[in-house]
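for the record, two folds in this file. i put them one after another cuz i was lazy. first one right below, seq on top, structure tokens after. the second one comes after a little note so u can tell where it starts
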Amino acid sequence: MTTDAPSEVPALPVTFRPRRTRAVLLTVGAVMFAVLTAVALILERLHPGERMSFILTAGLFYGVLILMSRPKVVADEDGVTVVNLTRSRRLSWPEILRVNLRVGDPWVFLDLSDGTSLPALGIQPGIGRAQAIRDARALRALVENRGTGAEQR
């Protein structure tokens, strides 16, 4: 991602999430659940326990896809909440030094004031590259406007 292009600071609160990826995951999950459930109910040779195992397996697959569609980044007046697959973390604006989305990165990384880097899966190029770049630039503009990242580089 080029850092030279200026980006407008979005109004708060704002939520960044991979919309296309989320739509694909939830649609595929719903279709897969429906198909496996239909197969379980249509096949006459299956015993009730086997039917239930089909439906439970379909539910498990759908649950995993729902979990994979969970990531988002929420920015508000007080800071940023990064929601990844199984964890979420709340950061105040001064904790975020830099927003990085380099060529080949699977998602945005936030450089933090404690010397660590936090992946923010809510902004990922995947199948929505242009949107991810816009979102990363908007989050970068927010960090530079509200945090201490601009002074500490």
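(here's the note) second protein begins now
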Amino acid sequence: MLRLNSRQLLGLKTLFHLAALLPIVYLTLLVMTDNAGGDPAQYIIHFTGMGALNCLLAVLLVSPIAKAWRFSALMQTRRLLGLYVFFYACLHLFSFFAFDLLFAWDLLFQEVVKRPYILLGAFCFLVLFLLAITSFNALRRKMGKRWQQLHNSIYLLALAIPIHFYWSVKSEIIEPIIYILLFIGLLVWRRLKSAPKKAKPFRQTSRRV
């Protein structure tokens, strides 16, 4: 089993921070150099949404990779990655509110009620918010078993967020379908791996006297 000391674990987390933040630097450069497509506002909304989706995928991949490679230290990065899911979701919501709705709160509530994909997105954001504020050790100890029940909703998000992506696009549905199939496959694989193995029946061999 691969183990890391505190300095090595800090280095691993630093790499994860860089991997999560460099796309924001890249997006900023694209916008500043007028290379964010024909509609920069929609490009930013889509980019930040994909950031949340990819970070969620990374969260769900941590446990299988850690078990397959016997890399237990990797499990200590799940909270970090989970908070980046929320970070990108905040950027995604803010971009939509700023560029599409021009900070009009009344339009926001109207859009949530009128458009199913926005209603689903609002639900996902609310769940992410609850997961983020309860991710700290003090609240985890205080909540007890309820903490695990709440944080199991990450698997619900693994289905709901790709569906939100699928409903939000008007064309080019291949990419969201790939993500839906990818998340379903990952959840099924995790379920099969976590299922208890059936014990083989004991067969008593008869001995001749």
